[in-house]
Amino acid sequence: MRALIAASCAAVSVIALAVAPSAFAADAITAQYRTSASGATADQVEPWLKLVNNGTTSVPLSDLKVRYYFKSETPDVGYRFACSWAVLNCGNVTGQFGTLTGGPADRYLEVGFTAGAGTLNPGADTGDLQLRFYRTNWSTITQSDDYSFRTDTSYSAWNKITVYRGGTLLWGTAPGGTGPTTTTTSSTPPNPNGPKMFDDFAYTSSSDSRISQRGWTVRSGGGGPGVGGAVWDPSRVTFPTVDGQKVLRLDSWNNGSAAKQTELFHQRKFFEGTYAARVKFADTPVFGPDGDHVVETFFTITPLDAPMDPNYGEIDFEYLPNGGWGETSNIMYETTWETYQNEPWVADNIHGEQRQSYNGWHDLVFQVANGRVKYYIDGTLVADHGDKYYPETPMSINFNLWFISGGLQGSSAERAYQQDVDYVYYAKDQVLSPAQVKTAVQDYRTAGVTHVDNV
To answer: N or C: which terminal CB in the chain sees fewer CB atoms within 10 Å?
Structure first.
């Protein structure tokens, strides 16, 4: 959990307020600010806000607008707003961008509230508004020269952020210049012809040169997750024909002590949109004794750069046919991660679960959009996560098959488990239903297309 340190409201007395007209004379709203991205540059700006009512009247939050001022980057490709988490619920928080001219800032993020946000009573505050915005092409933002930016990581009053009620300035000092002039929305409508990635896994072997040319990596060497000393073996990643289609096959082996695990992952460039794969899970090994705690997966991930890294993200389908992690039999998990640390183990995530067998083929879809991550299995919604668990950064697409540490059953006989993947599909910035995904995949196959990637 990110540390959230509230500063004393007494600090507001040292910052000058603009004089409000008599209509709102009893209103006194203070904007407190901190950031979780304090570097001079960042892939996204993270203004975290808290509004405090120091006045004597209750104020409907839907009447208020909060502005964070900044300089646009060159070229100006546009910006997108997102709410990572809010005490008020991100569904009650809005964001749009406006322009200014002639002053130290030429753009601003304007944060507003729906009627569902309620009323801010005297002496109360909104609680955390964990907000962020980024360039539409995810290129670097220089924020050290932004009017409203400061490096503070603890909340305190900040008068370079303004609060308006109607056209009345209640708090802060605007950067000057002329404007606002135009206001642009925070996002663009989905483009049905927008970027896609589709792979039908029509490869000859794990050494096929097209695999790396298309952004995939067949994992090798050591490292977690899995049993101690396990290696990731590229030779066990194959591409046979199953039920008339070429598939990706992960084949992981162990003998009760040593283990060879398998993984294929794509480059890190995927964020909001629809992800899908048709996966064949297996409840039993293809040979040898059953009972190992094995994990069969389809997931996306952003690397953990440091313990409790706030920019870490992970979206998981994980099937445990023999249980594990305290479960004694079949279970499917849908897990959305905020962050974690290894030592001592701290996990900040939210999950759904289904305690049943998923042996055989299944259509897996998850949508990442509008502050929510929605998971579907065979067309049925099984989990809906959001708020602070919504991802913040681009992710890679991954499939792996591994054994839980301490979860190998006692036999020294060799055994192996397999997971097949028929295809993988991603539509950037589009929310597609499972039925629409099926249609898109069938259209590719009808046209004889085995691979496309313009993401």
So the answer is: N
Q: Which residues pair with 287 in a beta bridge?
A: 416
Quote the Cα angle for 408-411-413, to 5°. 110
Closest CA to 254 of 238, 270, 278, 230: 230
Task: Specify whether the CB–CB gap between 432 and 440 falls below 8 A.
Answer: yes
pLDDT in tens, 187-236: 444 456 689 999 999 999 999 999 999 999 999 999 999 999 999 999 99
- Total residues found in the chain within this entry: 455
pLDDT value, residue 364? 98
Q: Quick one: tokens of 246?
A: 């070429």
| Residue 381, SS3 per DSSP | strand
Q: Are 369 and 391 in contact (CB under 8 A)?
A: no
pLDDT at 2 over 50: no
Q: Is 180 helix (H, G, I), strand (E, B) or coil?
A: coil
Strands 168-171 and 183-185: unpaired
- Tokens 């929605």 belong to residue: 374
Full-model pTM: 0.64
Beta bridge partners of 302: 313
Cβ(426)–Cβ(411) below 8 Å: no
Dist. CA 18–CA 59, nearest whole Å = 18
Which residues 6+ apart lie within 8 Å of 151 measured at CB? Answer: 35, 38
CA distance 104 to 259: 60
Closest CA to 129 of 137, 120, 139, 140: 120
* Vertex 403: Cα angle to 397 and 408 (nearest 5): 175
Weakest-pLDDT range from 75-79, 291-295, 381-385, 397-401: 75-79
Over its C-alpha atoms, the chain yields an Rg (Å, rounded) of 25
Q: How far apart are CA 311 and CA 294, in angstroms?
A: 28
Taking alpha carbons only, the member of 216, 218, 135, 199 closest to residue 394 is: 135
Cα–Cα nearest to 283, from 250, 323, 251: 323
Please tell me the distance from the alpha carbon of residue 397 to that of residue 262, in angstroms, as a whole number: 14
* Per-residue CA distances from 214 to 211, 311, 329, 442, 454 (Å): 5, 26, 37, 21, 11
